[in-house]
Amino acid sequence: MSSTSTFGAGTRMSRSRRKNAASSGSPTAALLAEQRPRSPGRRTASWLVTYGIVAIALAVGIWLLTQTQQPRAYGYRILNTFPHDPTAYTQGLVFRDGFLFEGTGKHGESSLRRVEPESGRVLQSHNLSRELFGEGITIFGDRIYQLSWRNGIAIVYDKESFRELKRLRYEGEGWGLTDDGTHLIMSDGSATLRFVDPEDFQVVRRLVVHSQGRRVDQLNELEYVNGEIYANVWYRDYIARISPRTGEVTGWIDLRGLWPKRRDRDDVLNGIAYDAEKDRLFVTGKNWPKLFEIQVVPR
């Protein structure tokens, strides 16, 4: 008890002397005023502000680094070449259970197909009604999903029989379609990918795709490959490798020269299929007579 009283008195005396010295205007007064101890609350607040500024600066630096990151450049090596129906206006391509599933477009010509990869022979097909322009496809569980271009309709099929199960509505155009095992991922020709619920096609989140700070639009056919989204870019012989978390293009696969003998400007590179079991990547284009199995190689 007594030690506490003595400490309190000493503290009061010290504060009183400093106050008197400071009021005298002498150098000693100024020195004593500078030596006045700061309260723990002020010291804590000061450190918090400092940490906050450092954290913000670090976050901004990381963001700037991701915006200006140079995407890696890739080329290709042809491993195998297979026949492909030259009348197929390829809009979507999926490899599953040893077969290629292909969605084709154009009014009056749109279809869903099961194709034997080695021969290019169409084993099973379903034709869409004339008012529908078929677009991208994906297989989710035991169902096939197929987009339409400007109709705002996604058709859901039984994977084995191609029997139509239901139709789902969405806003805007439909271009490419894939999935990450949880959500369907669709493109609409812009730089924004939509992650949607496979049950009702409600948008769960949107992902803006960019490369070195610039948006990458005209995203077309999609494929999910080893945790990345591969995307054809309309009228460009490149595939963008996209981070599904940030939207950053981490690499460009240059496929120029893969098939130069095109009849018109619409015969573009479009169609990516991945065989996850054997780690094989297939690509083709609209009305191309060839399907290519390629190996992606760093430049």
Summarize the structure.
This protein has 299 residues and is an alpha+beta fold. It has three helices and 22 strands.
β-strand number: 22
**What is Rg?**
31 Å
At the fourth level of CATH, the homologous superfamily of the largest domain is YVTN repeat-like/Quinoprotein amine dehydrogenase
For the record, the CATH architecture of the largest domain stands as 7 Propeller
**Structural class label:** alpha+beta
Number of domains: 2
Tally of helical segments: 3
Our estimate of the beta-strand percent is: 35-45%
What value does the average pLDDT take? Answer: 86
Provide the spatial order of strands within the biggest beta sheet: 16-17-18-19-1-22-21-20
Share of helix among residues? 10-25%
Give the SSE string.
Answer: HHHEEEEEEEEEEEEEEEEEEEEEE
User: Stretches where pLDDT falls below 50 for ≥5 residues?
Assistant: 1-37
Please give the largest β-sheet.
8 strands, mixed
Q: Under CATH, the topology of the largest domain is which?
A: Methylamine Dehydrogenase, Chain H
Distance between the termini: 79 Å
Give the overall form. globular
Report the CATH C-level class of the largest domain: Mainly Beta
